[in-house]
Each structure stands twice: as structure tokens, then as C-alpha cells.
């Protein structure tokens, strides 16, 4: 599919260091202001911790693990604010608190004062360097998180029923930025974002709640609007303007309520203290995490071996010309003016380190260029995706064995195929029966564990249309008859990859997907069929004949908002090139 759209504007990313060191409203964990309570530290030691279900982990709090540092007896942790430091510097005989303030606040259980301190940017008395939070607070936070998750599950079930369609989870696409650290981002989380409902000429902020999630995007509602949806707005959570609660206070930025509701409360500070008690926010280092996840190891002028797009059965040397969101624009060596290029993800099975073809016996087009130009360097082997080791000495694929395979030249079809050549390290050259070139130039290299090849009968068992060999007239196609007619044997079922990850994809989910027949394009797409780990991807606005079969762990699938985050151009649905893309208005299953 091909359609045009103005390139997405990429918001400049700030490299400013994060200055707030708070836990930020994660469960009961909070910092405190000076309390006027006259209770002693001894009284505070009699406080009772709420009971926690035995099945709950003691570690969950914004995705981090909280324990005593190295288990050293010389360290202590304040049971009020979470500060960790040298035990001798702590207050009271039992060394449970870092200051008199924390001891008194703990005994009076002044959570409201703690939240007010955060909003005002007042850190607790620091007698020790903050290293990490302590187990007691983590238990309390885990308990609060457990209660919140029970409520959120009920809300999300109702949302799914109402909308019917979903967008792909960030955690379903681990190769996407933040794919492995998105677990705590959920409905109900509070954040600080620019306030667009204001008369101020300078940028001001206000607190908003996540109402719905769709990939990297969230539907937000400013605090104070309650059930009023008139000012709800969508926002990519990974842009630099999104911050955890408390960031404004620690950064000296103004928190100003929206003008539409400014009249509702005379004391907004009291309102916020009440609303934010026990609420969750983003991790304090969220922006840093985004920046780290946007760093990629491949650099311009690195040399790789990649499939020759005009001669599939061989590879060529190519140079990395551009890196966007982990996607590489490769220019074939000897290309005139850089016009002969190829796009793929850095984890694609189509690219390899220099020397790979020779090591496994794969065809390779040698270059007339005899030496590297200035700045060129071979990409280190460790940067490439590793394949599973296999034992080829015993029972393994043999030349001539039959199987079913996704046609690399028509990804909407699963075809009758043959193992044409067994290479080293578990690789196979596969030909599509009935449409092979005489010289084998359209054979394709699949690893023996590839999720794109299947045993004989896979399509029939899973009610998928199998494409018979071109020109084969004995229809409907029957494997038993075909094997007998060709004198062939089927590759044993035990040789194929039978692992099915718990991928989280659901029918109707929206995502951004690469059109692998034109791999420079990333398009709006929908999951229309799921067969174990195999997904049928439909490009919105295009006919079904352009659909593609893709593995659930393909590096060419991305959550909604990936293009905006990385600055890659997103191709809109063909019939809606000038319309607002409603796919972002869809809820997500946790």
C-alpha cells in the first residue's frame, strides 16, 4: 500500500537531568512536611501495618525492586520517607527514622501533609543520600496497587464491551521503545502536562488522569473535571512535556487549574491533596527511561550483509545510511547516489554481520569495492538477532522435503514449498512450488526454527487457505495425493517451531505495521486473524489481497503512536488520507 501524508512533527527532546527525587504518589509511599504532632518516636514504633494478601510480591512499586542495599547491617531506611543511608546518622534508638520530622509524621499518619510537601517541592530532611526505598513502604504501595488493579480490571472490561476494538499493547511489542518497562502505565495514573485551557501567555501545567490507553497514546482528563469529558484530549505519553506528579514543584514550574473550572474550588491545594492521596504517577525517571530506550546500537556507515531485494537467494553488503526508531535504511554497496536502498528493522532476520553468508554457505554477491571508505566499519556480530542453536547431526531437514511456508513475494499467501538446500547453523533455502526460477534466484533463506514455515497440514488444521503450486490442476489440493505424485516426503512435524508466546494480541487490535512488500512504509493496520503465534495483518483502507501473515514477535509491528514518537512517517488509511484517524480512540486490554 502506498499513500502520502505530511511527515509527523517530532517534538524536540530535552536532555535536561531530572531533578526530582520523589517516589511520587505510588501507593502509600510519600514524603512529609514538618508535623506539629508531639508523639515520640517510641510511640510511632507501635504503628500497625495494614494486612497484605500473602500472594502479593513485596517488590512491586513503579516497576522497581526495593530491598536493603546489599543487606548491609550498617545501612538503615526511614520508614516514613524511604530515605536510605548510614545507620548511625538516623534518629532514635531503633534507627527507624532519618529525622524528628519523619518520626512525628509517621506516628500521626499525616498522609495529607506528605502530599502537600510533594506539591510544594519540599523534600524531607536529608541526613543520608537517597539510594532506594525500603521494604515497608513497598509493602504498603503493593497493597494499594493491588486494590487499584482490581478496580481497573473491572473498568477496562466495561470499556472493551463498549468499544469492541482495541489497540495493541506496548508490552505485546517488546522491540518497541519502552516495550519492556511499560507495565505500570495504566488507567488512573496521574501526570503533569501543559495546561491548554488557560489565558496565560507562558506555559503552565496541570495534573491530568489517564482515562484510556491506546499504544503510546493516552486519553487524558484534567483534575477537577470529574465526569465532564468536554476537555479530554489525546497525548503521547513519551513526549518531553509529560511528567510525573511533583515535577512542577521540583522544577519551579507553575501548576494552574484550567480556566473552565477555576471557579469550582476556592482552595485548589486542598483539592489536590485529597484527590492525589494514594494515587499513582509515572516513575520519577520516566523521561530518562524514554531517552535511553530511544538509543540504538547501529550507526551510520556500519557495514552489514542483507538480502538482495532483486535476487532473494543471495545477500549483498550494504551500509547503514539512516536509523529511525531502530529501523535501518540500508544502501547497497556500489549503489549510484544511494538510490538502491532497503529498509528493515535492526532485529530483522534479513540482516547479518559481515562474513555470515560465507560461514553458512549462503549465496553472496561480491562487491567490486576492494577497501572500506573513511568512517566505514563492520557492524559487530553481537548487534544482530541471535537464532536458536539446533543439532543438525541427527534428525533434521533434508533436501526435497515438503512443507508449508509464507511466500516472501506474496505475504498474504501460505504456499506449498520445498526445502531446496540445507545450509549450516540451522538455515534452509526454501522454494515455493510451481513458481521457482530456473536458477533458484527466488529461493528464500529461513531458519529451521522460523515461525514462517509450517509442517504439512498446518493450513488445513487451522482453516487457512493453502495456495497450491502454480498450474496444479488437481483441485481441491490434497497433500496425500501431491506427495505421492511428486515422490516426496513431508518434513517431520517435530522439526518445526511449536512455541507460542503469550503475546497479548487480540482480534481487532489497531497498530502501526510495516508493509513488508514496500518496507519503507509503516501503515495503519488491524489484526484480523490470530492462529497461535501467527497474525493476519490488514492495512486499513486497502483490499484484503494486501493482507500479510506476520509472526507475533515480528520487529515490523509497532504500537499506536510509535511513528509520532520516533519521527517516522505514518501512512494513513488509503480512504482516509485527509481524515482524523479514529483508531487512536480505542481502549487497551491490560
UniProtKB/TrEMBL annotation:
Region (Disordered): 12-53
Low complexity composition bias: residue spans: 29-41
Gene Ontology terms: biological process: chromatin organization; negative regulation of DNA-templated transcription
Gene3D superfamilies in the record: 2.30.30.140, 3.30.60.160
Domain FCS-type: 69-104
Keyword Nucleus: yes
One Pfam family here: MBT
Record flagged with keyword Transferase: no
UniProt name for this protein: Mbt domain containing 1
Organism expressing this protein natively: Oreochromis niloticus
